[in-house]
Write a structure and sequence with these properties.
CATH architecture: Orthogonal Bundle
Largest sheet: none
Order of helices and strands: HHHHHHHHHHH
Oligomer: single chain
CATH class: Mainly Alpha
Distance between the termini: 54 Å
Radius of gyration: 21 Å
Number of strands: 0
CATH topology: MetI-like fold
CATH superfamily: MetI-like
């Protein structure tokens, strides 16, 4: 093994840029996927059969196909269609597919939204009947009770499975290395490997960085769970 290259500042700058790329993608998918997930959860628990059918079909497809395939279908599929490329300059929505960052973020956000929708919907269905009846007794309507009582309570109880989902998505950002022009931790390791043929060393350092990030996020989620879900133990 040869570790001399890891004594150079440029090597660690590449990994730091990769970490920044990982954090940026994770933050973006949590925001956009979070909005989609909440909307999907509300559709899953709604009284409308049409909305339930749309949301159920979406989550079924997302959870039933690998994330890597979803990335390929968007970047190497939709973005490469001739009619989509023909509309790049005429419609801004199609022009977004020029960006590899947008394609990757779209795939990540859709994937996270699909899983989060099912997690939240399950938590909403498990809401204690007393909480719902108390909200109605105070004169709240269905959606007011959902917004002020049911959804906040469900979000607290969904923290443990949500933390696991966030960890998986953080690891899933490594698949962005399959899309050109994107730099994150795995892509940085691939660059080191292609430049210096140090496969074991490059990816061992990447694995170490993922471990550090994972344990730091686990600690943060444990603190959040202790603060927001401690009342469930009583």
């Amino acid at each position: 093994m040869d570790w001399t290259i890891f004594s150079e500042g440029a090597t660690w700058q590449l990994y730091l840029r990769g970490m920044w790329g990982t954090f940026a993608m994770l933050a973006g998918l949590l925001v956009f996927g979070g909005v989609l997930g909440v909307a999907g959860a509300l559709m899953l628990v709604s009284r409308s059969r049409a909305l339930k059918a749309v949301a159920s079909s979406f989550t079924y497809v997302i959870r039933g196909t690998p994330l890597l395939i979803q990335i390929y279908l968007i970047y190497y599929g939709i973005a490469q269609l001739a009619w989509v490329q023909a509309l790049w300059d005429d419609w801004w929505i199609f022009g977004l597919f020029k960006s590899s960052v947008f394609c990757a973020m779209l795939a990540f956000s859709l994937n996270h939204g699909g899983y989060l929708a099912e997690i939240l919907a399950g938590a909403i269905r498990d809401t204690r009947r007393g909480e719902v009846e108390a909200a109605y007794a105070m004169g709240m309507g269905r959606w007011q009770a959902m917004r002020r009582i049911i959804l906040p309570s469900a979000m607290r109880r969904a923290l443990p499975p949500y933390s696991n989902e966030v960890m998986q998505m953080m690891h899933g950002t490594s698949l962005a290395s399959t899309v050109p022009a994107l730099l994150e931790i795995t892509a940085a390791a691939k660059t080191i490997n292609s430049d210096y043929y140090l496969t074991f060393e490059a990816f061992l350092v990447a694995a170490g960085l993922y471990l550090v990030i994972t344990f730091a996020m686990m600690a943060l989620f444990r603190l959040a769970e202790k603060r927001y879900t401690s009342y469930l133990e009583h």
